[in-house]
Amino acid sequence: MEDIGSALDSLLAIAAVAALAPLLLGLMPRLPVPQVVLLLAGGMLVGPQVLGLASPTAVEPLADLGLGFVFLLAGYEIDQRLYRQDAGRRAVVAWFASLALALAVVGGLTALGVVQAWVPVALALTTTALGTLVPILRENDMLRGRIGGYLMAGGAAGELLPILAIAIFLGIGNRWVALLSLGAVVVLAVLLALANRVLRPGGRLLTVVVERQHETSQITLRFTVLLLLLLLAVTERFHLDAVLGAFVAGMVLRRWVGTGARVLEEKLDVAGHGFLIPIFFVYSGMTIDLRAIADAPLRLLLFFGLMVVVRGLPALLVYIGALDLRERVQTMLVTATALPLVVALAEIGLRNGTMLPENAAALVGAGMLTVLVLPTLAVVLQKPEPVELQREPEHGVR
Fold it and tell me: Shortest CA distance to 322 belongs to which of 175, 205, 174, 153?
């Protein structure tokens, strides 16, 4: 009973933070702070290091499910046709350029003794917080027009490719098991695609799905949650392969539901952004080692600068000829924004004992700083689109 009481107390504090964050932004519309930053800050406040109103261990399973929803929705937003276009090809080239730069820089830091776990730190510098960025970009009309496709492709590459690398090099400890896990995700994606053929127009199964997708049954949402929980149960060590699976499942679900994509998207937004995703971000705030950041603030600034340079600098060069200078700077700022994967990588390093606590805390703090600063600067640089361009559909959001 005591454990249940602790979990309820923690959920109450988290719910208060989650409810007050959008209210604060609504009362102060000019406050240039993304909601995720308020959730993380609220987690620090109610967590054991400050007020002690909530315990991260009490809500960890729900936080893992929220993390899965972050990547499921990120994969759901991606228009896979982008990778057959110029935007997708340039995004892949830019990510590999970031990876090469990150390996060189972090290798130097390892030689100096600043970094211990060089692989997760290097990968953290190549990530993009697409799931966090999409609501910000959508609210500021940055997914429209010419630049929208490049922003979505760059963000997707900065999320999918690091996840693949994490699953292979850091996922389970046995690389062959990790590769088999990746294969299982591919098989699952194929099965989902084939299952779509079973739902023939006029068939009994399709009729049941259509009739029971609303009101009390919510069958499509329930099966999506079932799929996500299945993926999260694959591993007991931080569920990295399940994170990959959640991202791929989101991409497959987008095509699988066909004309019902908009309906399912609304349901996923309600379940994810209304409940589970805020729990993950508040939980992440509670786990940040504030003392380590206070003891070594220069590490935070170092990693922040490296995130901007390593992930952002290639965008200034790779997109020459496709975007003008202002748009390339916006792309640099957007792609250098990182957080959820940084939190995951820091957690891995701490759990397996390969990452120094001060580096884990500084990486998460630097990721928070990118979310706080970089999207705001990108929005400031945004110019109003001409009236005729405002009617164009959003790239990657159908």
Answer: 153
149 in a domain, yes or no? yes
Between 259 and 274, residue with greater pLDDT: 274
> What average pLDDT does this structure show over 187-204?
57
The distance in angstroms from the start CA to the end CA of the chain is 46
Domain assignment of residue 256, yes or no: yes
Closest CA to 38 of 59, 17, 52: 17
Distance CA 229, CA 242 (A): 9
Q: How many domains does the chain have?
A: 1
- Domain encompassing residue 180: 59-384
User: Once rounded to an integer, what is the mean pLDDT over residues 153-168?
Assistant: 82
- Secondary structure element (H or E) that encloses residue 153, with its range: helix 145-169
368 within domain boundaries: yes
Model's pTM, two decimal places? 0.72
Long-range contacts of 191-194 (CB under 8 A, 24+ apart): 192/249, 192/252, 192/253, 192/256, 193/252, 193/255, 193/256
User: What letter represents residue 220's amino acid?
Assistant: T
User: What is the arithmetic mean of pLDDT over 34-54?
Assistant: 88
Cβ pair 298, 358 in contact under 8 A: no
- Residue 57 scores a pLDDT above 90: no
Looking at residue 383, its pLDDT comes to 66
Could you tell me if residue 42 is inside a domain? Answer: no
Residues pairing with 323 in the sheet: 320
Cβ atoms 124, 363 nearer than 8 A: yes
Which CATH number characterizes residue 119's domain? 1.20.1530.20
Cα separation of 214 and 376, whole Å?
Answer: 37
